[in-house]
């Protein structure tokens, strides 16, 4: 069955303050959607609410992944159902090696007794690390500990490649990346584009979209998607900024309740 | 069943026991002096743990034990703890040594490795020369009482320039809570020698054994240029109170490494200290502990810098479950004149339950200006952001917590240089964490 992801009237709050004010979005397998917008408009909240971050409370709405009600699942169940979020600020975890972590994640998707063999796992991980031009020594490093910003982002993409998700949300994967790293990360994402996988790319720079060509572009302001279009919308935003969108829609302050 | 919860220890009782065992007169003198000192001295008073409230008087009575011919005669659960073909092995059951092995090669080199009682008879001069050199007999009630009642134990002497490559191993086990369990360890590494010593301290009681207090004293003498690695893993039932004081005196350019697994289930006083007397002497201490149920623990590591260019590093990591309490002290003292010395310490406690309690107290006492000293201490719970991150990759909450808890201990466990000790610790960690 082709992947089908549908967000319907999603509202979410943090500490009682409503940030998402009704998000509607549909992503089919093979499509790449980009959500753009200035800082503080709720983009990252959308990513966190979809994944189920404990600080965000979903107050209304419905999200379906291939017919399953995503919001009724725990964080780990969402991941196993096929959702992947490449995080803007991945946690550092001392004492847990990158390889132990990823092996646990892969085995969590398998039945007991059918765990991936160590040799197969190492081969898979080494192969993907080479694609991302990562030093294979990072396998044995503690998860994200002492990684540079760019190394953390690559490590997120590595996880995506290893876990083979159906819906990928990239939350500001481009922030803090130099041009080389941006190219490598984008190549990794492009290599994963396929008919049965959908992407939601959150960014506020058009630059990333030169490398990963979106099919749809959405602009987020005040906790809502206020404008949608094709790749040409991203180009216009890059050239002209967001003021014309605000003017067109009569928006004075595009942010939403975040400090 | 006779339940004798308080065992009287006095001059007459220790003297009679010493004579009945045919001990040399000097040792009988030591014991009677210890019994007398114990009557007036006070129990040690570690920070925030009132050990005097524990039942410390149930020290049991001396019981003889039949010797065994080999490791195969040990209870099955203990066989794995005797080390894989160690260079030397001493097994103590309750109050007495039951097995002793040492390779002829080491014996020919002059290495002495036996129980301290035998050594007191056969190498009395050596033993008397070093006994109480690290831990004075009259320091407190514990050191005095232990000097009166100890039995079995270990004496290790490594002559000058002798390098013992394989670990020397000891196993102390208690299977009778009415029998005294008070091993005393004396290690002497003569100039430029090196040795690794590993012991396991365990109990194998049935379901409900009566209370017993185990008193242990460990003294290590590291002569110039010598290197001693001391690893110990404690894992006993909760009816047993474990009081252990370890101290090393390190001379010029000597090195002591402590590896301590306090995985005992009952109340614990564990105090490990290095006295860096010689210039250029160094000390490294790694302590791993898990507290569970209602046990109280006082875990102290200490380093006292006397010599110039001395270095100490101390790391303690403890995981506290259920209603367990741990007071963890790191005491770095740098004396006047110990120039260019460097003392570092880290204590970290991970709390798994709202009822658990953990305190980390780094204490730096510096009387010299030209030194480096550092400390880091933290007490915290499992970070919910980390749990979220792991779960977002499909890992179930329980497994995510497990990864983080083991990860908390891993940086210390993986640094343990003796593989069988590392594996044994890992097994016990799992048992105590999952239990």
Automatic annotation (TrEMBL), chain A:
Molecular-function GO term, any one: ATP binding
Stored PROSITE patterns: ABC_TRANSPORTER_1, ABC_TRANSPORTER_2
Pfam family, one: ABC_tran
Keywords: ATP-binding, Nucleotide-binding
SUPFAM superfamilies: P-loop containing nucleoside triphosphate hydrolases
CDD domains named among the record's database cross-references: ABC_FeS_Assembly (cd03217)
ABC transporter domain sequence ranges: 5-247
InterPro entries per UniProt: AAA+_ATPase (IPR003593), ABC_transporter-like_ATP-bd (IPR003439), ABC_transporter-like_CS (IPR017871), FeS-cluster_ATPase_SufC (IPR010230), P-loop_NTPase (IPR027417)
Membership in a protein family: Belongs to the ABC transporter superfamily. Ycf16 family.
PANTHER family: ABC TRANSPORTER I FAMILY MEMBER 6, CHLOROPLASTIC
NCBIfam families: sufC
Protein name: Fe-S cluster assembly ATPase SufC
From TrEMBL, chain B:
Segments forming domain SUF system FeS cluster assembly SufBD core: 174-408
GO biological process, alphabetically ordered: iron-sulfur cluster assembly
Domain of life of the organism encoding this protein: Bacteria
Region called Disordered, residue ranges: 1-20
SUF system FeS cluster assembly SufBD N-terminal domain: residues covered: 105-169
A Pfam cross-reference name: SUFBD_core
Listed InterPro entries: Fe-S_cluster_assembly_SufBD, SUF_FeS_clus_asmbl_SufBD_core, SUF_FeS_clus_asmbl_SufBD_sf, SUF_FeS_clus_asmbl_SufD, SufBD_N
Entry similarity comment: Belongs to the iron-sulfur cluster assembly SufBD family.
Protein name (record): Fe-S cluster assembly protein SufD
Lineage: Bacteria, Bacillati, Bacillota, Bacilli, Bacillales
